[in-house]
Amino acid sequence: MKTYTYKKSSALFKRAAQVIPCGIYGHMSPSPYVPAMNYPFYAARAKGAKFWDVDGNEYIDYMCAYGPMVLGYNHPGVDAAAQKQLKSCNCVTEPAPVMVELAEYLVDLIEIADWAFFAKNGGDVTSYAIMVARAATGRKKIVLVRGGYHGVAPWAQAPGHPGVIEEDHANIVYVDWNDIESFERAISENRGQIAGFMATPYHHPTFDDSAFPAEGYWQKIEALCNKEGIVLIIDDVRCGFRIDMAGSAKYFGFKPDLACYCKAIANGYPISALVGTEALKTYAAKVFHTGSYWFSAEPMAAALATLKELKRINAPALMNKKGKKLLDGLVDIARTHGYTLKVSGMPSMPYLRITDDESLMLHQDWCGEATRRGAFFTSHHNWFVSTAHTDADIKKTWNIADDAFKAVKKQYG
To answer: Is 272 exposed, middle or buried (0-12, 13-18, 19+ CB in 10 A)?
Structure first.
């Protein structure tokens, strides 16, 4: 099977490194791509479940722009709605009516939502959620699950990261996932000081298996929060609309006070949302949190079109069905080569790991070999499956994965 080369991509990255910190910074930096020589760095175009790099190589994309692509790149219905709004107005001195329409739709769609607030990135609304919790309770401390990810604000980054100081974590308390006793201890040791508890609907850290909530976990967390006056916040930025259209909390059977959304909400257009209960609406109104482009109408029109289409086709069920088919096939293919491929998390956003090498080097090499054959896999992060992935894409992915296993078999034996 033909393998790709990246001459133009490498040349462009060398230019970028001269004028941009890291060349490409953040989560799209080449650093998570191991071995980096097997990956492209720049995309030239995209359509459906595929993108093409600047060297003309084609990829079936299983990162989906790290989550935002849910209906397929350049989805005609979403793009038409965005273009229609753009012709009328976008970033103007006052908001457009579509802002009200989108808020109304989210309130009707998401089980716990009585109001909606819009920003741009997931980190905008996780930070806002913490501010609302503190405003509502008059308390300082926030409880987070160790290893969870909620954005790149200093409070959300792990202590010791460059630019993050000790004071940024002075009021952050860490507990372990699925450990009710850990949360109870945090409450006991910080009685009357905890403003909020924030976690993702299920645990999906990097470099580790995803873990679902234990039976009764969320119900016990909810009961403790209600008893202690703690605001319960679900970070549904990554999972949102990939598990349940009414919110991932609905799927897992609990009711948070606040829920954060981004990623799949607008199929790649820049918008995020915080929704919450009526009890917190007044406090949310009092917190000043805004941005120059947060009222842009084009992404709101795209979000409205995306959500309506996701609901119409029952996208969570569709993506999980496609994901299960893909993953069952990959597990079987791995087995034929003598490897065990472990899958965890929802099939719509799974985490994969070859268990035969604890260093993960074998797994990294397999992902790299698959990528340079046309299936874009990453080794450290959960993948994403979209509604645009077809049976033909899945079958081609299986063939690529099989050839990639042959390649690593030669290297590792």
So the answer is: buried
